[in-house]
What does this fold into?
Amino acid sequence: MGDLSTRLRTLQSRAATLFAACGAGLFTLLLLRNRDVFTRPIYEAGDPAANSMLTIEAKHFELLTGHYSRVGFHHPGPAYLYIQAAGEWLFHDVLHIVPAAYNGQVIAVLALNAALLAGALTILYSWLRSSMATLAAAGVMLIFLAKHSQLVCSTWIPNACFAPFLLLLFAGASVAAGRLRHLWIMVFAGSLLVHGHAEFLVLVPVLALLVLIPQRRNLLAQRRDVLIAAGVLALFVTPIVLNEILHRPGEIAKYITYGHRAPNPPLEAARFVVQFWGSRPLVGTAFMVALFAGTFLLVRVLPKTEARDYSRRLWWVTAAGTGLFGFYSWYGVDQLYATYIGTFSFALPLALLMLGSSALVVLIGGRHEVWLRWLPAVATASALVGGLTLASTSSALHRDHDDLAGVPAALTYLDAHAHGRPILLETRTDESWADALALALAVSREGKRACLTQDRWRLRTTSDFMCTSQDLAHGARFTLSRGVPVPPGAPIVLNLNPIPASYPPSAVIARD
It folds into this structure.
């Protein structure tokens, strides 16, 4: 019994060391690839600006909902926004190591993603008990991230859902294999996803039930693990419940109303799913089938150990996640051209790639042929070096310059024409709402009053940034417009979005 306890403590110590090393390594890599956050002030626009307005409430512990949705509601919870608010507070307000508030938010998201990815690797190691197999999976993960842009370096919530979904798969497989001490991790990852997007109100509970039903007897026997997981769940559920109580009818009724819609054509839904496995439908379908078949065969020939049991569960959990995503694409996605809705599902092929690479190293490492002795080390080193090389050079791990370069000049213009009065912003073209939010936020951070005059933008901001009757009576009015003649002297708010054709610069025009 003593030997078993000692081995368990040793394994836990090694797992903790691996988590710290992987987390710190990934975080450092992401910081190096995004080191301009320490030198260049970022003036966020559009959705990031809308979220930054919410982080202001989060910094005062007043925020109870998530970010806005284009279909007319807010997503379930504020977890991501509290994390971004913490980054803004720590790195900008307290430590003063970044030149703008949003830069601190970016660092917080990078740290979160590094920790989530490290968590997935640590769970894998706890079952395989092979450093080489785990590092091979880490190398494959880096290669994958280097080939898929913005998955772990963007604050945009659809991208931010990728890492927790990957962790959900690995933690869910561990729980399904009977290791309930990872239940709280599964709950944490699933709760992050639910807070991030309403679609996970269906996907996460169903996947959790599929994992937990076979373990229902263990749930009663291992009450400590269940209580810890329940505490984590309560932390995430509390703001949702409070919002429903304090702001009736809340958001849940809107989700239910949205859910009453006709399904998509099955073939179109299938195409939506496979696009995250390959660039074209046939390529994606072939890669999905090959990857599922190949990892299935690898798992079957593994020795009958804990590693095989976990690998088998991870395969099944990934298959279940793929099926659930397919069902949601059929019944839940309202616009199949809105690919961002499924960005999180990039975790599905990555989970199988990590499973296959680690299983292959374990399988080869268990052979006794002399000529195979060095093959696992060579394969692991190749994957890790290749992954680090690609991740260190690929632009995929560097956040897009989607901010506004013209904000400082626009602020000078606004100050010169406002003469100390509140700054009232309205949009002449719909696309200018992104710039209006950016300017209102930037003015507010300078300690001055700025607000939006048009009620149609209320969903995308907070009440503090909507004009009151007093503002309308005494403020200085400005119009933001894209694609119209600009008066002499009016500043142009240059937009650095990587799709400039979709986001032309706005002009700021003083009306009085």
